[in-house]
Design brief:
10 helices, alpha/beta, YprB_RNase_H-like_dom, Ribonuclease H-like domain-containing protein, about 250 residues, 5 strands, about 50% helix, 2 domains, five-stranded mixed beta sheet, Nucleotidyltransferase, domain 5
Length: about 250
């Protein structure tokens, strides 16, 4: 589903009205005519479409992030996936005030970059990774990854954000990233490594144990790469359920 198929951002158009429009073969902004709804609602829909078209042409993801209900922001993914940044962090613990970020992996345009604490993990480099992204994609990033980065590096991350934890919950998929990956068939090179292991690997690296950092980086990078696969699958399933199957 693309944002052009959506009418739900308009005040007065809920899920029921939107579905009725689709059932009447009004499945795209181009298909809309005011007579399909009440006069006032029709005027609001036309006004929204008139404003939304140039915003979409300009790649203004922030506009649609503000317009869509939070539970429906997954609909932005199809339009902005090519300019999305999939990222994941590893830390020394769960407390953003006391613990440190150890590695951050960013996956964009088929390429993966990892920044490492004590080397190239700086506020400037994190900011640079986000600079050209129209959409950030994480798993539990709203509560963990983004606040951790903001606290640790003095950042203010304002890029529109799709947190797949909530997208998956709409599909009835709950729990952590790894169990959900297993449930939908995403395989890992090292399924035996967990977030707890990531903390251990960093401590081993600090003690100078060979291979620990490389293993941690590999694990972190796989998290970021798999987010793309998970986002593709989850939004496709929601698309079928919401737009096709009804």
């Amino acid at each position: 589903m693309r944002v052009e198929n959506s009418f739900i951002p308009v005040r007065g158009v809920g899920e029921t009205t939107e579905r009725r429009l689709w059932e009447d073969d009004i499945t795209h902004w181009d298909d809309f005519h005011p007579s399909a709804v009440g006069r006032k609602t029709g005027e609001r829909v036309e006004s929204f479409i008139d404003e939304a078209r140039p915003r979409l042409d300009a790649g203004d993801a922030a506009f649609f992030d503000q317009q869509f209900p939070s539970s429906e922001r997954w609909r932005l993914y199809e339009n902005f996936r090519d300019s999305a940044c999939f990222f994941d962090i590893e830390t020394t613990g769960l407390d953003q005030e006391r613990n440190e970020v150890t590695t951050v992996s960013f996956h964009r345009d088929g390429e993966t970059t990892t920044l490492v604490n004590g080397d190239d993990l700086t506020a400037e480099n994190v900011r640079a990774q986000f600079a050209d992204a129209d959409l950030l994609v994480t798993f539990n990033g709203k509560r963990f990854d983004v606040p951790f980065l903001e606290t640790s590096f003095g950042l203010d991350v304002e890029t529109p954000h799709l947190d797949l934890m909530y997208t998956c919950k709409k599909l009835g998929l709950s729990g952590g990233l790894k169990p959900i990956e297993q449930e939908i068939g995403i395989e890992r090179d090292r399924p035996d490594i967990s977030g707890r292991d990531a903390v251990r690997l960093w401590k081993e690296h600090e003690r100078g144990e060979d291979g620990s950092l490389e293993t941690l980086i590999s694990y972190n990078r796989e998290d970021a790469v798999n987010l793309r696969t998970l986002a593709d699958e989850a939004t496709e399933r929601l698309d079928r359920r919401t737009f096709v199957d009804g």
